[in-house]
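Query structure, 146 tokens:
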């Protein structure tokens, strides 16, 4: 089995329940670079994610940029036209998504709530100037959190 990192735009998203498990299936497309004057070409991936968090599915909509990683396989099938074809499939553990510009398209999505960042880790071997860059001190009254 090969591991694959990928990114691209969602063109189709579908949530299915199979044997009591939830599976999200995405068609992801990435436009390939071409020389000037050449016809555009695209790379398509079929991505499956099993047991994804429930908040993720409503955010995986057409047009959203997504990235992920998973087990890559090539699968042969017979297309609607009767010709043999090959599908590039990735079985993922999860996805990273970009924040959609138009939240109105996502009625079930919870609003974005930023999480608190952990303070930077300071190691004994770091110089004082490095520590100062990681943890700048603001002496103004407004910086006091209480």
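Result returned for the query:
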């Amino acid at each position: 089995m090969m591991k694959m990192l990928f990114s691209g735009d969602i063109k189709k998203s579908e949530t299915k329940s199979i044997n009591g498990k939830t599976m999200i299936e995405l068609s992801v497309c990435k436009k390939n670079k071409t020389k000037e004057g050449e016809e555009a070409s695209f790379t398509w991936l079929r991505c499956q994610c099993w047991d994804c968090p429930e908040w993720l599915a409503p955010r995986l909509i057409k047009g959203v940029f997504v990235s992920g990683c998973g087990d890559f396989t090539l699968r042969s099938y017979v297309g609607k036209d009767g010709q043999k074809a090959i599908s590039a499939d990735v079985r993922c553990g999860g996805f990273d998504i970009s924040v959609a510009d138009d939240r109105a398209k996502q009625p079930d999505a919870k609003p974005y709530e930023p999480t608190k960042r952990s303070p930077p880790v300071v190691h004994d071997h770091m110089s004082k100037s490095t520590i100062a860059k990681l943890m700048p001190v603001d002496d103004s009254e407004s910086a006091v959190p209480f």
